[in-house]
Amino acid sequence: MKISQKGLYALQAMMMLGRRYHQGAIHIHDIAYEEGLPEKFLELILLELKNARMVESVRGPKGGYQLRRPPSEIYLSEIIRLIDGAIAPFGDAEQLRGLISRDVEHGGLYQVFLEVRDAAARILENTTLADVLTYKGPKAGKRQRKKKAELPRVLPMVVHGSVRKEAK
């Protein structure tokens, strides 16, 4: 699945608004600066999100944008579908089902594509802004860190089918 730059910016802006959900409206300049997003492009994205009733704008000196719903009630799939259209890395589900039934020779391949599409959609449909805001990074145990430290400095080379180590 490929998410457009516009879709990525929308997700980043929504995450920033989610982090500051209880702080009221955030000025568009602050969102752009904090997330490193182009302000003019962000204006268009936030207008789209406002028209879809995901965010609301507040006028005045303390104005800006804020989420209309709590981060726990906004799913990533909503944002991506609004900005980028259908969640479909290999075409929409109906198109793939049609290919499976029409192209028997390649039906197995299209079935795999359909399952990948369904799995991606299922994950995005069940992941909220709150879920991604609570992400703490990859969980590396002590064993994983130790293995990384023990990696050789020079990788072995394959020469005519044999493996030999390069001299330092």
General description of the model:
With 168 residues, the protein is mostly helical. The protein has a single domain (5-133), classed as Arc Repressor Mutant, subunit A, CATH 1.10.10.10. The protein is 52% helix and 8% strand. The protein has eight helices and four strands; from the N terminus they run αααββαααααββ. It has helices at residues 5-19, 28-35, 39-51, 76-84, 93-102, 107-125, 129-133, 142-149; strands at residues 55-58, 64-67, 157-159, 162-164. A two-stranded antiparallel sheet has the order 1-2. A hairpin with a 5-residue loop joins β1 and β2 (64-67). α1 packs across α2 (28-35), α1 (5-19) packs across α3 and α1 runs antiparallel to α4. The longest helix is centred in the C-terminal third of the chain and has 19 residues, at 107-125. The protein is elongated and about 65 Å long. The two termini are 42 Å apart.
Ends: how far apart? 42 Å
Helix content: 40-55%
Basic shape: elongated
SSE class: mainly alpha
Number of strands: 4
Summarize model confidence as the mean pLDDT.
83
Strand percentage lies at 5-15%
Q: Report the CATH topology name.
A: Arc Repressor Mutant, subunit A
* Contiguous runs where pLDDT drops below 50 for at least 5 residues: 157-165
CATH superfamily: Winged helix-like DNA-binding domain superfamily/Winged helix DNA-binding domain
- Rg, rounded, reads 23 Å
Largest sheet strand order: 1-2
Major sheet summary line: 2 strands, antiparallel
CATH architecture: Orthogonal Bundle
> Helix-strand pattern, N to C?
HHHEEHHHHHEE
Level-1 CATH class name: Mainly Alpha
Number of helices: 8
- Domain count: the total is 1
